[in-house]
Amino acid sequence: MTQAITVPRLHADTAWRDAARGLLIAGVPPEQVTWGDDTTPKGLFDDDRPVPPSGQITVPRSFISLANTVVWHSDPERFARLYALLWRLQKEPWLMTDRGDAAVAKLRTMEKNVRRCQHKMKAFVRFREIGKPTDNRRSFAAWFEPTHHTVEPTATFFQKRFGDMDWRIITPDVSVFCEAGDLRFELDHPTPDLPDDAAEDLWITYFENIFNPARLKVQAMQSEMPKKYWKNMPEAASIPKLIAEAPARARAMAEAAPTLAPAFAANAQAQQAQNISVWDGPADALPAAIKGCTRCPLHVSATQAVPGEGPTDAALMIVGEQPGDQEDLKGRPFVGPAGQVFDQAAQHVGLDRRSAYITNAVKHFKFKPKGRRRIHQRPNVSEIDHCKWWLDAELAQIKPKLVIAMGATAALALTGRSDGIGQRRGRIERGIDGTLVLITYHPSFVLRTPDQGAQDAAMAHLQADLAMAVAYTRDAVAARSNVGEVSQ
Ligand code: URA
Q1: CATH 3.40.470.10 region(s) of the chain?
Q2: What's the gap between Cα 160 and its chain centre?
Q3: Taking a C-beta distance cutoff of 8 angstroms, is the pair 465, 342 a contact?
Q4: Is 350 left (phi over 0), alpha (psi -120 to 50) or beta?
């Protein structure tokens, strides 16, 4: 006799968790359980009595986070796969860190799919106004067709963003309604007949104007905005025309560009600064947006994107190259061997890392597998360029007084210059966006320097540069508060 577990489509996360816990405590092995949702037909030999009452089990935190995302995947096998892994974890508690395990790898991929789908939902839902001008609150509706069951886990994002209006997102499966700030979910709501929206013309015009033909990469654009979403996005109607016209417009732009004066670098930097478009979501949504990044292929093999961490009003921002093996697994910057060197140097000069905002130029770990090891690979110019979007977003939100660029990748991302760090370290340069950038060695350079004398010298340079940054930001903050005192 198999035990048949029905996980309802609404609140599937808690329902699956309770059922799995009951089964585990009762010692029911995965092969004796069939899982389905409330659309799955029952089998002839299924026993669907409720699972026994809950009790205590030990589960790694990383599994809980994985399960909380994978339950929203559309694969009918998702519940069974999760339970099979949970079962194995009781005897093999290290399993979550085994990157070669096929079951873990499959679930990690499913987790990524769900996260990506949530990201697409946040980006591509288009609301149309449905209320009357006389209503107390404005109301909006959107029709959306997500690949996975992402309405429930993504609803709070919209709730926070659109707190001052009523809205609904209708999908073929689960729909969500937000009325007076309260969320309500409904199954199988009929397809709405939505009105045309007067704001659409404005949105299309805006989209056509922000489109930069010189930066067009059709494949990248389609992977960011897959075609299946186009039909519900008003601006998508303009895409084929914009793509067709792009080469001629880019040529015209190039012909119209001014001849570069001898002060090449300054002009190029000024031009680039003007072209920057910055992610402008709410500050608290930035880490999640970074975690959902699929802007370049590095997201495919990395465990997760690692956003920066630290106070959002930090005077000092510190930028490294990219997460290493440990950072990739833990989701935090500078917590591996290079992080230890950095902590040592910081401690030596009285810099408390919690007072600074620490991040990387590239947010995903780039590596080459070698047996069970993952060997660090330097990010290339295109990867740095794609990730600049996030670094710019962090710069725009933190507005630091000074940025420390540790190593060549950070220096390139921040200043646009790739000349040697040896000659530039210890100096403050002007970054592409005008921010002051202090160049120094990367802590890994200190680690990799084989000769003890040279290693000590590199460490001393790193410490001296950090000390300079501490002094500079302390003065800048003091000057700011003096100005405040005078003007009050
Ligand atoms: N190296 C980096 O550049 N950044 C990290 O977060 C860790 C190692």
Answers
A1: 283-487
A2: 18
A3: no
A4: left
Q: Write out pLDDT tens, residues 317-351.
A: 999 999 999 999 999 999 999 999 999 999 999 99
Measured between alpha carbons, how far is 367 from 300 in angstroms, rounded to an integer? 11
Among 362, 376, 242, residue whose Cα is nearest residue 308: 362
Q: How far apart are CA 106 and CA 127, in angstroms?
A: 34
Residues in CB range of 388: below 8 A, 6 or more apart = 361, 413
| pLDDT per residue as tens digits for the range 169-224 | 999 999 999 999 999 999 999 888 776 665 566 566 656 666 666 666 666 666 66
Which DSSP category does 334 fall into? S
Please name the residues in contact with 23: beta carbons below 8 A apart, sequence gap of 6 or more: 3, 5, 33, 51, 83
How far is ligand 1, taken at its centre, from the CA of residue 272, in Å? 26
Task: Indicate the angle between helix axes 12-25 and 78-91, nearest 10 degrees.
Answer: 40
CA-nearest of 301, 443, 421 to 360 is 443
**Residue 327 beta carbon below 6 angstroms from any ligand 1 atom:** yes
**Which candidate, 437, 423, 429, 427, places its Cα nearest to that of 318?**
437
Q: Is 404 in the pocket of ligand 1 (CB under 6 A)?
A: no
Local structure of residue 145 (DSSP, 8 states): -
SS3 label, residue 436: strand
DSSP letter at 133 equals: T
Compute the distance from residue 385 Cα to the ligand 1 centre, in Å.
18
pLDDT digits (tens, 9 = 90+) for 261-315: 444 555 555 545 444 456 777 888 999 999 999 889 999 999 999 999 999 999 9
> What's the CA gap between 457 and 459, in Å, rounded?
5
Atom of ligand 1 nearest to the CA of 337: 8
CATH number of 283-487: 3.40.470.10
CA distances to 3, 205, 403 from 18, in Å: 15, 50, 47
Residue 33 CB–ligand 1 contact under 6 Å: no
